Amino acid sequence: MSGKATSRASNSYATSGTKAKNRKRRKIKQTKSQPDAVGTSPTTNEGEQQNERKAGKYPYPTDYNDHFETPQRAYEDILPIIGYVLKKKIKRYNSQSDVTIYDPYFCTGRAATLLNATFEQHTTGNKRHTNIRIQHEKRDFYQDVRQNNTPQYDILVTNPPYSGDHKERCLEYVVDQLKNNQRPFFLLMPNYVASKEYFRKIVLEEKIQIVFITPSSKHPYEYDHPEGTGHETSPFASVWFCGLSCGDTDGTWKKNQ
Questions:
Q1: What's 177's DSSP letter?
Q2: Residue 166, domain CATH
Q3: 139 vs 142: CA distance, rounded Å
Q4: Bias regions of kind Polar residues — which residues (predicted)?
């Protein structure tokens, strides 16, 4: 997601000495107090260090502008479908074993907290009899995929980074898992993804059934950055791309009031 970080810099300067010294000292002060926002640092190396300090240290490349947290309201919007999928799973396998929900893209860990809170606040019959575990760790997702080291899970729920080719790579993975392992997915992405060529090739040509969950146009999702910077409201609409297996689409669901 995009957003520009801002910070405040000190503007206090020494006033004694000659005008020439004042100008020199003022120039030094201004250089030292440059805002440590993205793209405003004197050198690329220094900028990368500042961005890392802001976003936190990760075992994989990150983009400062990708660090926006999914709001709990967004999770609440897909909860009825997740509950429906869980009910179908329990019925299909005649089992009430533990269920793992996997979010491979780690920011601060808040996603797991909000997902757990969502299930706790909207207790359903499935929750009472099924232990739901959130798998969300600071790991290199793409390295895990290459090494076949991704965790066993039942449902994938994530808000992938919007920069670069993350959305495309995420789609490739979840569609493969849905086709071969019947693992449903819920991806919160910009609505324009549905018009992209890679979406047509990965999703439509594979005849994957997608359900779209959209917030009200008057009340779009608002996002928080860990540093409190950027814009809460995205310049484009974010919607849920929900991929369901054939066994999960032969019924209806109703949002809990």
A1: H
A2: 3.40.50
A3: 9
A4: 1-19
